[in-house]
From TrEMBL:
InterPro entries: DNA_brk_join_enz, Integrase-like_cat_sf. Keywords: DNA recombination. One of its GO terms (biological process) is DNA integration. This is Tyr recombinase domain-containing protein. One of its GO terms (molecular function) is DNA binding.
Length: 145
């Protein structure tokens, strides 16, 4: 995250200058040197271009499905952060979610499955040790009476 922030600030300083505090950080330079703000339509257009090249889609295919938007990045980022162990409050803050609706996008990625399996194994071990301790205690009680 720090490397990404550094890259964003460095690009902003190069394109706009650090003294311009009234301009958002999300800018890029066009092919003719003009400055543009990064916004949802730019992100969607970039995703559409990548999807076309990756999946060999036509413009008609993309218009029919409308699956590639800036929202895709937020949902994907929520999954990645959650899999990395970031808690819900941090995800809401980092990705500016107003509600807990990002939970709808969480997927059963391998990392999350491994965490769930470890938790179940730990619970099973704890339960077995509690049963063993209870049996030992019950055997001691008759001897004390």
């Amino acid at each position: 995250a720090l490397r990404s922030l550094h890259n964003i600030v460095s690009r902003f300083a190069r394109i706009v200058g650090l003294d311009k505090t009234d301009i958002p950080l999300a800018v890029y330079k066009g092919s003719f040197g003009e400055k543009f703000f990064i916004h949802s339509k730019v992100i969607a257009s970039t995703l559409w271009t990548l999807a076309k090249k990756t999946y060999n889609l036509t413009d008609r295919d993309l218009q029919r499905h409308h699956k590639y938007t800036s929202h895709s990045l937020r949902a994907g980022a929520a999954v990645i952060l959650h899999a990395a162990g970031i808690n819900a409050i941090q995800i809401k803050f980092l990705l500016r979610w107003r509600s807990d609706s990002f939970f709808l996008y969480l997927r059963n990625v391998a990392h999350l499955s491994e965490q769930q399996n470890r938790a179940i194994d730990q619970l099973a071990l704890a339960t077995q040790s509690e049963v063993t301790a209870a049996r030992a205690a019950s055997q001691l009680i008759p001897n004390l009476v």
